[in-house]
Amino acid sequence: MASKSELEKRIFITGGSGYIGSTIIELAMKDGYSIYALSGSKNSDVKLKGIGACPVRGDLKSFDVLRENAKADIAVHLADFHD
User: Fold this and answer.
1) Burial, 11: exposed, middle or buried (Cβ in 10 Å; 0-12, 13-18, 19+)?
2) 17 burial level (CB within 10 Å; 0-12, 13-18, 19+)
3) Is residue 79 a contact partner of residue 38, using CB atoms and an 8 Å limit?
4) Which of 14, 24, 77, 82 has the most neighbouring CB atoms within 10 Å?
5) Digit-coded pLDDT (tens) for 35-79
6) Could you tell me the end-to-end alpha-carbon distance of the chain, in angstroms, rounded to an integer?
7) Contact 14, 69 (CB under 8 A)
8) What is the reported pLDDT for 32?
C-alpha cells in the first residue's frame, strides 16, 4: 500500500498571492493537491496561509529555494520579475 507522501501531489507556484495564482491554488486544493507558493513578504505569507497554501519565503533570484521546490509534481510560474 502506498504511503501518504506517495499519494500526495505537490504543486509549487510563483505568483500565488495574485488573483490568478490564488484562484489556481483554491481549485488545486479542492482536487487534493498540497500547495507550496513562493512568497516575498509577510503580507503574501498571510494571504497564502489564508487560502491554505504553504508559503515558501524567497524571490525569483533565490535559486536554492526554487531548486528545492522544483521537486514538486507540478510547477506553475505566474510571477513577474521586477526590481
Assistant:
1) buried
2) buried
3) yes
4) 14
5) 999 999 999 999 999 999 999 998 888 888 877 776 889 999 998
6) 48
7) no
8) 95
